Amino acid sequence: MQRSVRFSVPGRPQPKGSKRAFSIRRRDGSSRAVIVDDNQRKYKPWEQAIKAAAREAYDGEPTRGAVIIEAELYFSRPKSDYRTGRFAGLVKPSAPERHTKKPDVDKCARCLGDSLTGVLYVDDSQIEELWVRKAYTSGDDRTEVWVTLQESGE
C-alpha cells in the first residue's frame, strides 16, 4: 500500500551544519570529547517548521516501509539580481537562471530527511529515493515537499 503526503514549509531553507569534534583536557588530567554543530542556531527553527508542517499533513504512525522524497527549495533572489530605475522590479538579463550559490543542496536535504524522522518514517535510512532541487522564486522563501510512503509488508 502507498500513501502520499504533500506540504509546504514557509521560511528560508537551511543546511544542516557540519559537526566538529575536539577534546578538552580537564584539571585532573583526563579529557572529554566535545562535538559542536556549526549551524544549529539557524537550522533548528527550520527543522521545527518542517516537523510541524509534516504533522499537520500526516496523521498516521511513522511508516516502517520505503520512502520517496521529492522537495523543491525556493530562495528569494538577491537584490543585485534586479534592475533599478524605470525597470525596477525586473530581473536583470545577466542574473543567473539557476540557484548555484550556498546553501548546499545536499546539506539542506540532510536537514529535511532528519526532520521527518519520527514523524513520517521511523528512521531516515528508509529513504529509498531523494530528489531535491534549489530554485529562485519571486515570492517568499519556502520549501515544497512531496513524500510517498510505502507501507511495509512486515
Mean pLDDT: 89
Give, in order, the helices and strands: EEEHEHEE
Q: What about the largest sheet? A: 4 strands, mixed
Helical percent range?
Answer: 10-25%
Number of helices: 2
Q: Give the DSSP E fraction (strand runs of 2 or more residues).
A: 25-35%
- The counted number of beta strands is 6
Point out poorly predicted stretches: none
Radius of gyration of CA atoms, rounded to a whole number = 20 Å
By CATH's scheme, which homologous superfamily applies?
Answer: Holliday junction resolvase RusA
What is the CATH first-level class name?
Alpha Beta
Q: Which strand order does the major sheet show?
A: 1-6-4-5
Cα-to-Cα separation, first versus last residue: 12 Å
Q: What's the CATH topology label?
A: 60s Ribosomal Protein L30, Chain: A
How many individual domains?
A: 1
User: What would CATH call the architecture?
Assistant: 2-Layer Sandwich
Q: Please state the structural category.
A: alpha+beta
| Cα shape | flat
Fold blueprint:
Blueprint: E1 2-10, E2 19-25, E3 31-37, H1 40-57, E4 67-76, H2 105-116, E5 127-137, E6 142-150
Parallel strand pairs: 4-5
Antiparallel strand pairs: 1-6, 2-3, 4-6
Notes on the protein architecture:
This protein has 154 residues and is of the alpha+beta class. The protein contains 2 helices and 6 strands. The protein has helices at residues 40-57, 105-116; strands at 2-10, 19-25, 31-37, 67-76, 127-137, 142-150. The strands form 2 sheets. A 4-stranded mixed beta sheet has the order 1-6-4-5. Strands 2-3 form a two-stranded antiparallel sheet. Helix 1 (40-57) packs across helix 2. The mean pLDDT is 89.
